[in-house]
């Protein structure tokens, strides 16, 4: 058991792979020390999924203030830039922010700053949508390719769109980044780490709990609106459960496919955290912690 001391006067950042217990820790800090829990998960911003994306429940939201959860329409565009513009006002609010999630790019923008890149024209995005991952990646400059997750199509396409629309590489824009809204030395930054086996068991347990809590009701509500190209519809578990709902998978196949997708996603998250969050305090939920 690790003793976890948190300065009650500083903002808190909590990152970690999916299913690692980030939200529970954020809520515990908010209840014991005060503060507002702020979402930093790209899938949990959308209004179509609460259970599927493991957003805090209605009961949990009643225990402490929560912000930036489920406030974006399922088909609305949303990026790290949108998130940063929404989170900055919360940094100077009356309640200390406890920012929690698994989207490393959000934390990176917050603590290192974010380049003010012009919006991507619709025709450029449409062209990018029609290209393969390999073609998108081959068009990037080496500096940009070295900085992004080249297995993440959304990140690769975003880099390609920036280069195509502006004529400047994403790496060049990043090098002109303004000062960060919340420097790392001004907050308590925690990243949760655990073994793969421990996390795998939690991933499978959470999937079954999602079904018990009514995940299929959310899926049925989205049946006629589901679009695999939308970021909201790429949430882990959503494509698999929709395949089950439409008879393209058995429930057992959907569970296994979702577990594999979640495991791969968690691996990408851990790789990001190791590379970009080496100065953050490491916490093991597997061993346990005692908040003091």
Automatic annotation (TrEMBL):
Its EC number is 2.5.1.75. ATP binds at residues 16-23. It catalyses: adenosine(37) in tRNA + dimethylallyl diphosphate = N(6)-dimethylallyladenosine(37) in tRNA + diphosphate. It holds the Pfam family IPPT. The keyword Nucleotide-binding applies. Substrate binds at residues 18-23. The record marks 103, 125 as: Interaction with substrate tRNA. SUPFAM superfamilies: P-loop containing nucleoside triphosphate hydrolases. Keywords: ATP-binding, Magnesium, Nucleotide-binding, Transferase, tRNA processing. GO terms for biological process: tRNA modification. Its cofactor is Mg(2+). InterPro entries: Dimethylallyltransferase, IPT, P-loop_NTPase. Monomer. Catalyzes the transfer of a dimethylallyl group onto the adenine at position 37 in tRNAs that read codons beginning with uridine, leading to the formation of N6-(dimethylallyl)adenosine (i(6)A). Belongs to the IPP transferase family. PANTHER family: TRNA DIMETHYLALLYLTRANSFERASE. This is tRNA dimethylallyltransferase. It comes from Phaeobacter gallaeciensis.
């Amino acid at each position: 058991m690790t003793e976890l001391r948190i300065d009650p006067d500083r903002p808190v950042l909590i990152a970690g792979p999916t299913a690692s217990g980030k939200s529970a820790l954020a809520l515990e800090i908010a209840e014991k020390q005060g503060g507002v829990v702020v979402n930093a998960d790209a899938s949990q911003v959308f209004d179509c999924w609460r259970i599927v994306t493991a957003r805090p429940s209605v009961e949990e939201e009643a225990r402490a203030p929560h912000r930036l959860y489920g406030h974006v329409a399922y088909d609305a565009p949303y990026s790290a830039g949108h998130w940063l513009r929404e989170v900055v006002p919360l940094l100077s609010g009356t309640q200390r922010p406890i920012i929690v999630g698994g989207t490393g790019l959000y934390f990176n923008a917050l603590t290192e700053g974010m380049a003010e890149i012009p919006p991507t024209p619709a025709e450029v995005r449409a062209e990018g949508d029609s290209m393969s991952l390999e073609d998108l990646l081959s068009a990037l400059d080496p500096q940009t390719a070295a900085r992004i997750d080249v297995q993440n199509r959304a990140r690769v396409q975003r880099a390609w769109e920036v280069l195509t629309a502006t004529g400047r590489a994403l790496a060049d824009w990043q090098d002109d980044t303004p000062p960060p809204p919340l420097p790392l030395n001004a907050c308590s930054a925690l990243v949760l780490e655990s073994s793969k086996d421990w996390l795998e068991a939690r991933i499978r347990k959470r999937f079954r709990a999602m079904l018990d809590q009514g995940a299929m009701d959310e899926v049925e509500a989205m049946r006629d609106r589901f679009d695999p190209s939308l970021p909201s519809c790429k949430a882990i578990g959503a494509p698999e459960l929709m395949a089950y709902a439409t008879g393209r998978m058995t429930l057992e196949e959907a569970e296994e496919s979702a577990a594999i997708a979640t495991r791969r996603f968690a691996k990408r998250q851990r790789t990001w955290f190791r590379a970009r969050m080496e100065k953050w305090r490491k916490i093991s939920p597997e061993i346990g912690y005692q908040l003091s």
